[in-house]
Amino acid sequence: MLNLSILPLLCSFLLAASSASAFNITKILSQYPDYSTFNELLSKSGLASEINNRGTITVLAIPNGAIGDLTSKSEDVLKRILATHVVLDYYDPMKLQRMKDKTAKMTTMYQQSGKAAYDQGFLNVTVKDGSFIFGSAVKGAQRDSKLDKSVMNQPYNISILSLSQPIVTPGLDGTLIPVSAPPPKVISPASAPPPAEKEEAKSPEEEAESPSEEETEAPSPSEDGDSPASSPDADSPTADSPPADAQSSPQSSAGKLKVSFGLFVVLASMVAAY
């Protein structure tokens, strides 16, 4: 009996809790005329119903005067852009003030679409000069959407923050390549130095390590002007004097005549003795 009496109370509590956590973004924004165009675009793109199915959400709303050319976008592109303005977490000014290192990276609804690339599904928020600046996390994307005010918040289910202008995420319209996409590296043959240049670049080192040409061509001691071989000897005959063979030949002839004459005298005396 006791358990049966408690059951209706539990059902009522669960029903109240579910109704308290549920919200209707279209109905909420309809209370703020300054965001009527943004509210219409959420319904046109079909994103409003997806927002209502979330339990915790932060909507970065754009006022009518700063909506820009969003109204001229196709339904598909518009939904992508608006999805980057819906953060899958609860943020209000107090929570932003408690950001670690005064910067935070936020996950948007576009990240869960499966179409995001190069950080297109993320936002960066930083504190600059006392203001909160929102921008796409894509490398090189402009970050100049300033937080103007908090429109409404229901901790910790839904928060609506007003930005000064729409967040620009590169590549969402299909006409731009995300800035962070690295271009392919093309190595052209002209960029490589020719072999001749490499040899010329190494020649100073080779010349520094090998003996110089002046050292290899230096005259040897035998070719030096001061060497005995190249200088004329003081005792040696000059070019005008007769050669050594020419001087010795008359002397040897005279000696041979003397010897022959002596033998002749000896033979003559022997014959006379007999």
TrEMBL record:
- Mode of membrane association: Lipid-anchor; GPI-anchor
Protein name, UniProt field = FAS1 domain-containing protein
Basic and acidic residues biased stretches: 196-205
As for family, the record states: Belongs to the fasciclin-like AGP family.
Please name the PANTHER family in this protein's record: FASCICLIN-LIKE ARABINOGALACTAN PROTEIN, FASCICLIN-LIKE ARABINOGALACTAN PROTEIN 14
Origin species, per record, is Anisodus tanguticus
Describe the location of the FAS1 domain by residue ranges. 22-151
Signal peptide extent: 1-22
Q: Which residues cross the membrane?
A: none
Output compositional bias ranges, type Acidic residues: 206-217
Composition bias (Low complexity) maps to 218-255
Gene Ontology annotations for the cellular component aspect, listed alphabetically: plasma membrane; side of membrane
Q: Where is the composition biased (Pro residues)?
A: 183-195
Query: Which controlled-vocabulary keywords does the entry list?
Result: Cell membrane, Glycoprotein, GPI-anchor, Lipoprotein, Membrane, Proteoglycan, Signal
Note the Pfam families from the entry: Fasciclin (PF02469)
Where it mainly occurs, coarsely classed, is membrane
Annotated region (Disordered) at 183-255
Localization annotation: Cell membrane
Q: What does this protein do?
A: May be a cell surface adhesion protein.
